[in-house]
Amino acid sequence: MSADSTLSQQEKMNIVIVGHVDHGKSTVIGRLLADTGSLPQGKLESVRRDCERNAKPFEYAFLLDALKDEQAQGITIDSARCFFKSAQREYIIIDAPGHIEFLKNMISGAARAEAALLVIDAKEGIRENSKRHGYLLSMLGIRQVAVCVNKMDLVNYSEEVFRDIETRYREFLKKIGLEPRAFIPIAAREGENMTEPSRHLAWYKGPCVLGMLDAFDKSKKLSEQPFRMPVQAVYKFTASGDDRRIVAGKIESGKISVGDAVIFLPSNKKSEVKSIEHFNAPVAVQAQAGYSVGFTLKEQIYINRGDIMCRVDSPHPSVSSLLKVEIFWMGKNPFVKGQEYKLKLGTAKVPVYLKEIIKNIDASDLQSSEKASVERHEVAECILECASPVAFDTASDIEATGRFVSVDQYDIAGGGIVVEMLSDEQSEVRKQVTLREEKWDYSIVDSLERQRKYGHKPKLILLTGKVGVDKKTVAKELEKKLFESGAKTYFLGIGNLLRGLDADVEHVKTARREHVRRLGEVSHLMMDAGLIVLATASNLNDEELKCLQEITSRDMILIVNVGANDFRQGIVDLNLEAKNPAAVNVRKVLDLMENAGVFLGS
After folding, report:
1. Which of 215, 241, 259 is the C-terminal boundary of a domain?
2. I need a labelling partner for 345 at 20 to 30 A (CA). Which of 34, 121, 207, 524 fits?
3. What was the pLDDT predicted at 227?
4. Beta strand 532-538 pairing with 489-493
5. pLDDT band, residue 43 (cuts 50/70/90)
C-alpha cells in the first residue's frame, strides 16, 4: 500500500485502558464493543451460551479473554488489542494488565497509546496500582487521560462517593503534572454512561465514555515529525544478477522520498535514497510513518542494525553514550551499579550500566529518596552509560526513539524515557568526525568495487594489552599470512607514529589523547584505501578505545586484547592468552575476522 492511500482512510486513534486488577477494564472494553456493534456476528450470543453451559454468570470481559489461562485466573496478563468504530473515528483499544506482576506488559501497551482511560472501582477506591498507573501514563508522556469511576451500581450511584474519589485522585495526578480531561461515573457491566447518558447518574453533567473518546484530540501526525527509521535489517540479493542491498525497517516518524539525502546515526554514514521497496506491492516514490519498508541507496554503504536512518535536511537525533532517563524498574533483582544490562532503544541493543541515581521515587506515594539501587516497582531519575554511543531523541520530541527498555539477563527488567542528552568524553571527537565526513572528498573508485577486487572489506584489527605483553609478533605474523593469501594489508605500530607523524606533539597533558586520535585517523585513511590495518598499542583504556571507535566507526574495528583484560565487558571482541604460541593466536584472530565477514564469501 502506498503512503498516499492512507489519506482516504478514516482517522484512527490508539487508546489504552489501565487500572488496578478487577476494577473492570476488560468489562469497559467489552461493553464498548457490544454497544457500538463492533463484535463479529454471533460473538455475543456465543459467549452467552458458553457461560450457560458452564453454569457461570456472563461477563462482558469474557469477550476479550482470548487466552485460556486468562479465563482460568480471571486476570489480564497481556496487552490485548481490539478495534471498534464510532461515527467520528476508528479506535484501536489496548487492554493493559492491572496486576502488579504484569506492569511491564502494561507499559508495553501504554507506550503505543495517544490517550488513556484509567479505571477505578467506586467501591474499592483508589489503590496503589491506580497511582502507579497514573504515574506511568505521565512518565510515558500520555497527557489525554479520562478517569472512569466504575461499578457505581455497587455504591447506589452515589455522587458523594464519586466526588470523594475525584477529589483525592485529582490531587495525586496534579502532583505528577497530569490534568485529566474528565472524571466519568460509570457502571460498565450495566452499560450506564458508556455510550449514552445514564438516568441513574442524572447528577453528572459531563460526557459519557464514548463521547469522551470522540473528544480526545488526535496527536500531531507522525508524518509531520522529523524522519526516523531504526534499521531492522539489511538484505542482500544475489539470485539472477540481482545485486540490491535493501535497508529495511519501520518508519516511526516523518516521510521520505526517492532522491532524499539520508544519514545513518550513530555510524554517520551518508547516502541517497535510490528506490523505495515494498513486498509484493507497486513501486512507490514516497513512504511515511507507520509503514515497514525497504530502501536501496545510491552509494552502497555498510549499515548496522540499530542505526537510525534520518534525512540530512531535517533535525537529527542526539548521539551519546550517556543518557539522562526516567526508568520504572520491574526486575526481580534491584537495578545496581557495576552490573551490565542491555539497553534496547529502537532496534539498537547495546550493553548499558547504571552510572548514577539522581533520585528514587515511589510511584504509589511520590516519596523520593536517595539510595544506592532502584528496587522493584520504583521509578528513578538516573544516568545510564552505554558501552558504545547510541542515537536517540528525548521522549518529549519523538516518542518512538525516546523510549527504551532495559534487559537483565534475558528478562525485560525496566522501561523508561530519555529526558536529556548528556555529553560524554567523546563528544568533541564525534563533532570533529561529523565535520570530517561532511567535507570528505570521495574517490571515484567505489568502496564496494575495491572490496570485490581485493576480496575483503577494509578493517582495523587493533591489538592491545599491557606494556611488555608481545602483541607485535601476532600482528606481523597475521600481516604476513594475509599478504600471502592476496589480501591488501599493512602493519601499523603506534611507535612508528610517535617517531614520525606525532613528533610535533609536545603538550604532556594532551599528548596521549592526540596520539590515540592520530592512530585512528591514519587507520581511517588506510581503510578508505581498502586495506586491512593491523595496529598495536599498549595500555589503552576504555575511553581511548571508545575514541578509536568514534574515529573509525564501531563496525570498522575489531579490538583484540592480549593478556590480562581490564576492559569493561562488551568493548573487546577477542581476548588472547599471552602464553599461547603466535600461530595459535593468529588463527584465533583469523577466525574472528571470518565470523565478522571481513573476507568476502566467508
Report:
1. 215
2. 524
3. 96
4. parallel
5. low
β-pair partners for 319: 391
In a domain, 587, yes or no: yes
Question: Is 22 within the bounds of a domain?
Answer: yes
Helix (H) or strand (E) holding 150: strand 145-150
pLDDT for res 498 = 75
The domain boundary, picked from 254, 287, 311, lies at: 311
Q: Are residues 377 and 488 in the same domain?
A: no
Q: What pLDDT, in 10s, does the model give residues 543-570?
A: 888 889 888 887 899 999 999 888 877 7
Whether the predicted pLDDT of 419 surpasses 50: yes
Length of the chain measured in residues: 602
| High-pLDDT (> 90) share of the chain, % | 42
More confident residue, 469 or 62: 469
Say whether both 30 and 97 belong to one domain: yes
Closest of 536, 527, 516 to residue 469, by C-alpha: 536
State the cell numbers at 469: 605483553
CA atoms of 118 and 137, how far apart (whole Å): 9
Question: What are the C-alpha distances in Å from 21 to residues 31, 107, 122, 277, 528?
Answer: 18, 15, 13, 45, 59
Provide CB contacts within 8 A for 535, sequence distance 6+.
460, 461, 462, 463, 475, 491, 492, 493, 494, 519, 523
What is the residue range of 206's domain? 3-215
CA distance 484 to 34: 75
342-375 pLDDT, tens digit per residue, is 999 989 998 999 999 998 877 666 666 778 899 8
Cell numbers placing 226 = 522529523
Q: What is the pTM of this model?
A: 0.69
Nearest CA to 468 out of 400, 539, 534 is that of 539
Does the residue 447 lie in any domain? no
CA distance 588 to 600: 18
Nearest to 520 by CA among 424, 429, 428: 429
Answer positive or negative: Cα dihedral of 38, 43, 45, 51. Answer: negative
Residue 544: CATH number of its domain: 3.40.50.300
Mean residue pLDDT across the chain: 83
Statement to judge: residues 55 and 202 lie in one domain: yes
Contact 327, 380 (CB under 8 A): yes
| Position 434 in a domain | no
Residue 136 contacts residue 110 (beta carbons within 8 Å): yes
Average pLDDT for 300-319: 89
Grid cell digits, residue 360: 528514587
Check: CB of residue 229 under 8 Å from CB of residue 308.
yes
pLDDT of 409 strictly over 90: no
Give the model's pLDDT for residue 363: 67
- pLDDT score, position 475: 95
Co-location of 67 and 103 in the same domain: yes
Answer whether residue 75 shows pLDDT above 80: no
Per the structure, the count of domains in the chain is 4
Q: Helix 582-595 to helix 472-484 angle, to the nearest 10 degrees?
A: 60
Assign residue 268 the CATH number of its domain: 2.40.30.10
232 and 185 in one domain?
A: no
To the nearest 10 degrees (0 to 180), the angle between helices 427-439 and 542-552 is 20
- Direct distance between the N- and C-terminal alpha carbons of the chain, in angstroms, rounded to an integer: 37
Q: Is the CB of residue 516 less than 8 Å from the CB of residue 547?
A: yes
Backbone angles phi, psi at 581, to 5 degrees: -60, 150
